[in-house]
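Long-time lurker, first post. I've been practising inverse folding by hand and with some scripts of my own, and I keep getting stuck on stretches where the structure tokens seem ambiguous. Below is the full token string for one chain I'm working on. Before anyone asks, I'm not after the true native sequence, just a reasonable design that respects the backbone. If someone could post their per-position residues I'd love to compare against what I wrote down in my notebook.
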């Protein structure tokens, strides 16, 4: 029995997925579709159990450099296997690589029945997607994107993600209280999600006592964020808060420990990964909002198959955003947010 379970884990097949313990997924939808400023409603979504045929789906990610996109990858792989469809996964290697992502989606869409795109740019892919959408459905996943040519969208409002962590900070340090010095790391300038998280964060921080003394834009790779953090700590040794991406938080935990500053500088992340989970549990990061990337990966596959089979009715949906801190750590559904520890990047489901 133990040997059989071990083999199942190795090949990634027949492993129980607790994300399917419930028959429905709690999600938010938007009206009108593709407009996060519209009306949102909470609904119970019934995922498919099996596809009508062995559809071929191509999915393109910005990268697989952190555990956030690994969790999206796990969700897509798990649901593709459940439905019995073929999945090919490509990754652009980072947000600066727009031309590489364009080349990827042009090539793989030629032999695909549907395309799923986690975009590196809000507008940069639009001409290519308009062209591809003439032949196959296109589902936008996770990162927001210009809606021209898009058949369906899986995601959350990144304005709301920015607001969530900004509000968390503002509740700790409301306007009128003692000023605190903050360094803000929005992410890669020009990426589809970054300008929205910046908007939400800035608006919510207006209710706080924050003195934002440094803003550093950059790719969400560990080394890139580490260099930016070192620059900020050199220029502002009296910084009190570091707020930024989950990768920023991971790098900050390491750097602050090395410099003996862990007890003096507080870290907040604007999304949730395995690293932020461990850091919150250990008291190294204070809080982060989760947008349930595993569930987003599953939902994107489900939307793509429904679009192909003519059963797509929920065209714009995503999980509800929830703040995670030590007090809430054990009340959230981790299976919807984090890939299992045994899961490795998977580029094809046959």
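-- Answer (accepted) --
I ran through it position by position. Result:
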């Amino acid at each position: 029995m133990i040997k059989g379970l071990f083999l199942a884990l190795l090949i990634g097949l027949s492993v129980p997925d607790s994300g399917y313990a419930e028959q429905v997924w709690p999600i938010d939808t938007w009206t009108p579709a593709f407009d996060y400023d519209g009306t949102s409603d909470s609904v119970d979504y019934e995922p498919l159990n099996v596809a009508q045929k062995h559809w071929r789906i191509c999915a393109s990610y910005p990268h697989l450099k952190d555990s956030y996109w690994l969790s999206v990858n796990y969700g897509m792989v798990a649901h593709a296997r459940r439905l019995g469809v073929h999945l090919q996964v490509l990754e652009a290697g980072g947000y600066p690589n727009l031309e590489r992502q364009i080349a990827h989606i042009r090539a793989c869409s030629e032999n695909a029945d549907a395309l799923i795109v986690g975009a590196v740019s809000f507008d940069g892919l639009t001409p290519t997607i308009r062209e591809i959408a003439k032949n196959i459905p296109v589902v936008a996943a996770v990162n927001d994107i210009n809606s021209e040519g898009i058949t369906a969208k899986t995601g959350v409002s990144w304005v709301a993600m920015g607001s969530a962590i900004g509000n968390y900070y503002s509740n700790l340090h409301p306007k009128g209280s003692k000023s605190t010095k903050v360094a803000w790391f929005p992410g890669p300038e020009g990426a589809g999600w970054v300008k929205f998280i910046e908007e939400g964060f800035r608006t919510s921080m207006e209710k706080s006592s924050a003195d934002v003394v440094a803003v550093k834009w950059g790719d969400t790779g560990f080394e890139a964020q580490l260099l930016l953090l070192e620059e900020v700590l050199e220029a502002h040794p009296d910084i009190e808060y570091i707020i930024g991406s989950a990768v920023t938080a991971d790098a900050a935990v390491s750097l602050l420990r090395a410099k003996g500053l862990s007890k003096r500088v507080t870290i907040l992340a604007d999304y949730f990964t395995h690293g932020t989970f461990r850091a919150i549990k250990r008291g190294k990061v204070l809080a982060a909002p989760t947008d349930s990337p595993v569930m987003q990966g599953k939902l994107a596959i489900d939307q793509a198959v429904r679009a192909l089979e003519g059963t797509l009715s929920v065209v714009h949906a995503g999980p509800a955003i929830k703040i995670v801190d030590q007090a809430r750590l054990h009340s959230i559904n981790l299976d919807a947010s984090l890939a299992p520890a045994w899961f490795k990047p998977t580029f094809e489901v046959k």
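A couple of notes from the structure itself: Residues 18-156+292-319+345-349 form a domain with the Rossmann fold fold (CATH 3.40.50.2300). The longest strand covers residues 180-187. Happy to go over any region you disagree with.
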